[in-house]
Specification:
heterodimer; A: mainly alpha; B: 272 residues; alpha+beta; rod-shaped
C-alpha cells in the first residue's frame, strides 16, 4: 500500500512539474481540506484564511519545480509552504496568538461544529493526546513557535517544553502505528 | 556514530517540527542521506504529523477552487507570451476527457475569455460614450456650418437677383485719391428705391472710425448711414432707401457717423 501511494505521489509530482492542470486539480481536491484545516488553526479570520489557502495553492503551482522528493513527502513540502505563508502573514500583521484559541478548538472537535473530511478516526485519536500535548504540538507544528517561544508563551521551563514535545510525538507514533 | 543514541536524542523531533538551528538542520539533512535509519525515523515522524494535520481538515468553500484555477490560468497566459509552449501544454490541449474535469476546463476557458474580453468591452464602452459626446459636438458644428453655407447661398442668390435685375442700377464709387486702390459699389433699385452697398473693396480702417454713405440730393448731402466693411459677401448690405440722388459718396467718420460729411475724409464717390 505505501508503495502504491508513493508511486501515485511520484506521478503527481511529475505531472505537476509538467504543468499538468488536471494534476493540479487533483492536488487541490485531495489536499485543500487538510491545508485549510492547518491554516484555520493559525489564522482565525475566515476571509484571511481563504486568502491564505488561495495564496498557498498558487505558490505551490509556481514553486513546484523547487520540490525535491528526496527531502520528504509532497504533503510535507506543501504543508511547510502553507504554514510558512501563514506565519509570515501573522508576523507581518503582528497578530496575537491566543492560546485559548487552541482550547476552543478542542471544544469544536468534540461538538463537531465544523465540517471535517475523512478523519473521524483520526479525530477520536486526538483525544488520546492530553490538552497540554496538543497545545504544544499545535504551537510548534502549526504556529511555528520555537521551543524558546513556547517556553515563554506558556511560562514553563525550556526543558519541560522539550520533554512534552517528545512525549506528544510518541503518543502520535502509537496512535498511528497501525 | 551511535545512530540509536542520535535518534533518541530528540533531534529528529526538533528537525521535523522545524525547531532546529541552521547548523543542526544542515547536520540532519546530511546524516539522513548517509544513514537510512535516521531517514526512516524522520519519515515516520513526518507521517505522524501529517496524519495529525489531516485530522484537523476543514473543507474550504467551492469558490476558492475556481479563484485559484483562474489565477493559474492567468499566470499561465502571461507565461505563454514569454516562452514557447512546452510539450506538456500541447499534450493537454489534444487530450480529450469526458469526465467532470473537462467541464471545469471549459469553465476555465469561459472565464479566461471573459477575463480577456472584459477590458476590451470596458474600453469599447468608454470609447462609445466619449465618441458619443464628441459626435454631438461634431453634429453641432456641421449644423452650424450648414446653416452658414445656406445663409451665404441665400445671400449670393439675393445678390445675383439684385444685380441681374434690370431695375437695379450699379454705381461704382471710385477713389478720390487716385493712388488708393479701392472702390465701393452701390446698387440702387429704381423700383423700390432700395440702396445696397458693396464695401468689399474698401480698405480697413481703425476701429474708432466708420464708413458713412451719402447721397447728394439737390446739391446737399443726405446720409444713408454707417456700415461695416468686410471681405465676404455678408458685407453686401441694404443700407436704406433713396428716392433720387445725383451722386453717392463715402466718407470716413468717427464711429457712429456724423451729421455732416467730413469732406476731407471722402474716400470714394461717383455721380449717378
Amino acid at each position: 500500500m505505501p508503495e502504491n501511494k508513493s508511486q501515485i505521489e511520484q506521478q503527481l509530482v511529475t505531472q505537476l512539474k509538467e504543468r499538468n492542470k488536471d494534476a493540479f486539480v487533483h492536488l487541490y481536491d485531495n489536499y485543500s481540506a487538510a491545508l485549510n484545516g492547518v491554516i484555520s488553526r493559525i489564522i482565525v479570520d475566515e476571509a484571511e484564511a481563504q486568502d491564505l489557502l488561495q495564496d498557498s495553492f498558487i505558490k505551490i503551482w509556481k514553486k513546484i519545480d523547487t520540490y525535491d522528493s528526496s527531502k520528504g513527502s509532497l504533503f510535507t513540502w506543501i504543508l511547510n509552504l502553507c504554514r510558512n505563508l501563514c506565519i509570515d502573514r501573522l508576523r507581518s500583521k503582528e497578530y496575537k496568538h491566543k492560546i485559548q484559541r487552541f482550547d476552543k478548538y478542542v471544544v469544536y472537535i468534540e461538538s463537531g461544529e465544523r465540517e471535517k473530511t475523512d478523519s473521524i478516526d483520526l479525530k477520536e485519536n486526538l483525544n488520546i493526546l492530553s490538552p497540554e500535548q496538543r497545545e504544544i504540538i499545535d504551537l510548534a507544528y502549526f504556529g511555528g513557535y520555537t521551543q524558546q517561544e513556547i517556553s515563554e508563551e506558556l511560562t514553563i521551563p525550556l526543558g519541560t517544553v522539550k520533554t512534552r514535545v517528545r512525549a506528544a510525538l510518541l503518543v502520535l507514533r502509537k496512535i498511528y502505528e497501525g | 556514530m551511535n545512530i540509536e543514541e542520535y535518534i533518541s536524542s530528540g533531534i529528529i523531533e526538533d528537525y521535523v517540527l522545524g525547531q532546529v538551528t541552521d547548523q543542526q538542520l544542515r547536520e540532519v539533512d546530511c546524516l539522513r542521506t548517509v544513514y537510512p535509519e535516521i531517514n526512516e525515523a524522520i519519515v515516520i515522524l513526518e507521517r505522524d504529523l501529517v496524519k495529525y494535520a489531516i485530522s484537523h481538515s476543514i473543507k474550504p468553500d467551492e469558490n476558492v477552487k475556481s479563484r485559484i484555477l483562474a489565477a493559474i490560468e492567468n499566470s499561465e497566459e502571461k507565461q505563454a507570451h514569454v516562452q514557447a509552449p512546452k510539450e506538456g501544454d500541447i499534450k493537454d490541449i489534444s487530450e480529450a476527457k469526458t469526465d467532470s474535469r473537462s467541464a471545469s476546463r471549459s469553465s476555465f476557458s469561459w472565464m479566461r475569455a471573459a477575463a480577456v474580453a472584459l477590458p476590451f468591452i470596458l474600453i469599447s464602452i468608454l470609447i462609445y460614450f466619449y465618441m458619443d459626446g464628441r459626435l454631438e459636438e461634431k453634429n453641432k458644428q456641421l449644423t452650424e456650418m450648414q446653416l452658414k453655407i445656406e445663409a451665404e447661398a441665400e445671400q449670393i442668390e439675393n445678390l445675383l437677383a439684385l444685380i441681374s435685375n434690370p431695375q437695379t442700377k450699379k454705381i461704382t464709387l471710385n477713389p478720390v485719391n487716385e493712388q488708393l486702390a479701392a472702390n465701393a459699389i452701390v446698387y440702387w433699385n429704381s423700383e423700390n428705391k432700395s440702396v445696397f452697398i458693396d464695401p468689399t473693396a474698401l480698405p480697413g480702417i481703425p476701429s474708432e472710425n466708420q464708413y458713412q454713405l451719402w447721397a447728394i440730393v439737390s446739391g446737399k448731402p443726405v446720409s444713408l448711414g454707417v456700415f461695416e466693411t468686410g471681405a465676404d459677401l455678408n458685407s453686401i448690405q441694404e443700407i436704406g432707401k433713396m428716392e433720387s440722388a445725383e451722386a453717392f459718396a463715402i466718407t470716413m467718420e468717427v464711429r457712429g457717423g456724423s451729421e455732416t460729411p467730413s469732406m476731407d475724409q471722402m474716400v470714394v464717390m461717383a455721380a449717378v
